[in-house]
Amino acid sequence: MSEFICATSQNEKERLAALRALEILDTNPEPEFDELVGLASAICETPMSVISLLDSDRQWFKAQVGMKDRETPRAVAFCDHAIRQPELFIVEDARQDERFAVNPLVTGGPFLRFYAGIPVTGPDGHALGTLCVLDSKPRTLTAGQKAALRILASQVNAKLELRDQRRKLEEALRVAEEAQRKARESEARFRTFMDHAPLISFVKNERGELLYYNQQFAEAFKIDGDSWLGKTAFDLFPEKYAESYQRDDQEVLRSGVARVIEESSQNTLGEINHWRSHKFRYVSVDGENLLGGVSVEITAELERDQNLTRSQQELEEANLRLATLVRMDALTGLHNRRGFDERLHAEFQRARRNGRDLSLLVLDVDNFKHRNDAYDHAEGDETLKRLGGILKTSVRAGDLVARYGGEEFVALLPETKEAEAILLAERLLSAVRSHGWNREPVTVSIGAASLHPAMRDENRLLALADEAMYAAKQNGKDKAVNYGAYLRQFTTGLPSLTEASKASNSVSA
């Protein structure tokens, strides 16, 4: 990896020469760059993201999300500041930054307030532009988002270098094809070209014997002069390599169709190298079919791709861990309301679709406000943590326990009938009573409800369990009430559960 070269007035001429040598300015969009700005925008949750390249008097966008123009004057470019240092350059609120407060990109469209950019470099290390994310409102990046931007900037660097190598290889292959045409006119001219080409060059006959190789070939394989002339791959390389070379060579000679092949080799020092070879058939001046080849080493490219793959895997794993964390309650270690709601929706739809049983428990700690007032919030938190542990170890493997909010917990019970749900609720009541609590005993009130065919909404199931829990509160607490049984037993002569629920709002839990 080349050493990073910050943009300064002293090296500006060299930097611009490096940028223009890439032949990338004013080119068409390319998916591999578009994907990176899309990923940067998504990870950093910003509406705008670009890969900018700083020309002498403008900044031009190779890829962009959310920006209408393909270029802006360099004089107003935030990116011109970013390329002057090697790390992330962040402006959290441009209106509060004297460098940018009157910038026309801030005072007018697109009304920038937030900017975070990291330099991207060419193969020689010069800072050519940036990968940046932008927003029209102030914001702050998380550590994870900053790390992701660094990884994505490294990927932009790699894509720029790979693009340059592809361009050079295409040019070299074009030159080689032109040389093949000219070789029919003059074998001597062809040999001269091959010997002075900037790539590995070689010629074989139909028997696989080397007739010619250039100086770069000799240097790559650590050999002197013409010592390999007249020898075949089986004389020079391990059998597994020689068989592969022979198979590919014979296919090109047989079909007459040029091929680009990725190959591996082992030199006299035992080092493994990887090549991208262009092999073609041509006819010598005396009518003999010959195999010509030019190769470029891609060992570093493959290693870089492997590193990028590992970085991408690490990023995906980090995103997976983050997705898990946002569904967990930090205090109890149980699922939180978001995680529970997602699972409830999925289980409700599955149960209705397949005609399966589904039940739900809602649990509320009795007299919790009194406990907090009598002792302190630390004691209240300890109570909730212990209760979460009791619930988690008391339910079955397929059940889901979550802290729904405050001192309220829920237990989702797939494949569970009404009678089974109330038995589990009674077991939970017993487990809570028998636990060795600090200071004074803890009890809970539990409401249970089960899915029935007419129910169309999972929120209705949750509401019925919640009403049953309030009925348990009104009937003395430390009880479990099943909504269905309660409704069947107490419909006559008692207020509705909805009225009971409203009345209980005036009574301290």
**Class by helix and strand content?**
alpha+beta
Spans with pLDDT under 50 lasting ≥5 residues? 492-509
CATH superfamily of the largest domain: Reverse transcriptase/Diguanylate cyclase domain
Distance between the termini: 65 Å
Integer-rounded radius of gyration: 36 Å
Domain unit count: 3
- The backbone outline, from C-alpha atoms, is elongated
Biggest sheet architecture: 6 strands, antiparallel
Number of helices: 17
Number of strands: 16
The percent range for helix content is 40-55%
Spatial arrangement of strands, main beta sheet = 3-2-1-6-5-4
Please state roughly what percent of the residues sit in beta strands, choosing from under 5%, 5-15%, 15-25%, 25-35%, 35-45% or over 45%. 15-25%
The CATH class label of the largest domain is Alpha Beta
Q: In CATH terms, what is the architecture of the largest domain?
A: 2-Layer Sandwich
Could you name the CATH topology of the largest domain?
A: Alpha-Beta Plaits
Mean pLDDT: 87
Structure description:
This protein has 509 residues and is of the alpha+beta class. It has three domains: 12-164, GAF domain (Beta-Lactamase); 186-301, PAS domain (Beta-Lactamase); 337-504, Alpha-Beta Plaits (2-Layer Sandwich). The chain is 46% helix and 21% strand. The protein has helices at 12-21, 31-44, 79-82, 104-107, 143-185, 187-196, 215-220, 233-236, 239-255, 299-325, 337-354, 368-374, 377-394, 418-434, 458-474, 483-490, 497-504; strands at residues 48-54, 58-65, 71-73, 89-91, 114-121, 127-135, 200-204, 210-213, 259-266, 272-283, 289-297, 358-365, 400-405, 408-414, 444-450, 480-482. The strands form three sheets. A six-stranded antiparallel beta sheet has the order 3-2-1-6-5-4. The protein has a five-stranded antiparallel beta sheet with strand order 8-7-11-10-9, with helices on both faces. Helix 2 packs antiparallel against helix 5, helix 13 (377-394) packs across helix 14 and helix 15 crosses helix 17 (497-504). The longest helix is centred in the N-terminal third of the chain and has 43 residues, at 143-185. The radius of gyration is 36 Å and the shape is elongated. It starts with 11 loop residues before the first helix and ends in a 5-residue tail after the last helix. Residues 492-509 have low confidence and may be disordered.
